[in-house]
Amino acid sequence: MSTWKYMLLTAAFAAPPLHAQEAASAAVAPAEAPASDRIAAAQSLIEVMMPAAQREEMMGQLVAVTMANVSAGMQQHFGAAELAADPKAKTVFDRFVARQQQLTVEQLRTQLPGLFDAMARAYARRFTVAQLGEIETFFRTPTGRIYVTESMNIMSDPDIAAWQRQSIASSMERLPAELERLSQELKDAGVQTDASTQS
């Protein structure tokens, strides 16, 4: 398999965590609805933590930073020289990454109301009305407001970004062997794959 196919596969594996909770939640049995006063307190807290007017922008920034780190991690693994050797392929790959970012942002935009409704119920199950009020009080303090502002910027911190790039690069090192193992296990199980039909 070519270098660029490995890169595209890695990008495909790296992107799902941005919205993987949707699939995970589908497998969980519905929980009992929290009391309405808890839900109201949780909604009030979430509005302070992530104001509705800023949610799309905040999530868009998170997606952009994550995709940038994913792309940088793959380039770190393969090396700038190898990437520069095939500028046409790099252009296609960059366009692919940009498209995944756009699609993820668009998906989040349509799903944000459901996400924050789910968050409100999750908070309401774990905290009492009094506890939710105390947490909200903190977020209304000067320190709490700074936390709200800076918490979404944490992923773009140089140390976090460097860790994420290294994590992606490390994942790519084991990807070829894992793909070969997958192909062999499918073959052993009698499953026809593109590789087996072409051999």
TrEMBL record:
Pfam families per the UniProt record, alphabetical: DUF2059
Signal peptide coordinates: 1-20
Record-linked InterPro entries: DUF2059
Protein's UniProt keywords contain Signal: yes
Keywords: Signal
Residue ranges of every copy of the DUF2059 domain listed in the record: 117-156
Name of this protein: DUF2059 domain-containing protein
UniProt organism field: Sphingopyxis panaciterrulae
